[in-house]
Specification:
- About 30% of the residues lie in helices and about 30% in strands.
- The protein is of the alpha+beta class.
- The chain has one domain: Immunoglobulin-like (Sandwich), CATH 2.60.40.
- The strands form four sheets. A five-stranded antiparallel beta sheet has the order 1-2-5-6-9.
- The radius of gyration is 23 Å and the shape is globular.
- The protein starts with a helix and ends in a 5-residue tail after the last helix.
- The relative contact order is 0.17.
Length: about 210
């Protein structure tokens, strides 16, 4: 009887690490949906938000990557600020794996006023006003998103890659002493480490849920 009990203890001891090793990491991405109650414009976004256990959240001052299907602007790829009080995002540097990095400019956000039209040629009061409005919107935008062909290219890179790094673009060239805060990019883990955001199964599942991929 004692030999049987000893065998059971040994088996349990050997099985415990295996069960622990099989524990799945938390999904990096989640789906967020919203509909404007007045215009009925809708969005379905796949977002790499912060998480603590099963709790998902975003923080004021944090930047979060987003792939969105927008009923007005179509496919959008880029970064949004988080938290209850959202801050301007500015221009963003974005890189997937070993693909060349990209710059996403807030001034290229969809839906901003065009700087000039055939009715308002460049240099006219109307054109200058439109340009000033565009720059104001860009400086105060709480998301920086690529659209059209650029968004599709960025999504294709993500589907071909395994990890994402991004950060706010520096307002000036990096010269002199390094600014380590400005160079921080990626996802902050529970240990305070910065790691690339994994483009995992939850990302692809989110794309399907939003109708971005089949």
């Amino acid at each position: 009887m004692r030999a049987v009990a000893t065998a059971i203890i040994i088996v349990a001891t050997l099985a415990a690490p295996t069960a622990h090793a099989r524990k799945k990491p938390a999904a990096a991405w989640q789906v967020m949906r919203a509909t404007d109650p007045v215009t009925l414009a809708s969005t379905c976004a796949v977002v790499a938000s912060d998480h603590y256990g099963k709790i998902r959240f975003t923080q004021t001052g944090g930047l979060y990557p987003v792939v969105e299907m927008n009923s007005t602007h179509g496919l959008l790829v880029g970064v949004s600020s988080g938290g209850r009080f959202r801050l301007p995002t500015g221009d963003i540097l974005w890189a997937v794996d070993n693909f060349p990095h990209r710059e996403i400019k807030a001034a290229d956000n969809p839906g901003l006023p065009t700087p000039a039209t055939p009715a308002a040629p460049e240099g006219t009061v109307e054109a200058v006003t439109a340009q000033a409005m565009r720059m104001t919107y860009a400086m105060t935008a709480t998301s920086t998103m690529a659209s059209g062909a650029k968004a599709r290219e960025m999504l294709d890179e993500m589907l071909a890659g395994g990890s994402l790094l991004f950060r706010a673009a520096a307002p000036a060239a990096q010269i002199g002493m390094p600014n380590y805060t400005a160079l921080m990019a990626g996802q902050i883990t529970g240990k305070g480490e910065l790691k690339p955001i994994p483009i995992d199964a939850s990302f692809r599942e989110g794309l399907k849920a939003c109708g971005i991929t089949e």
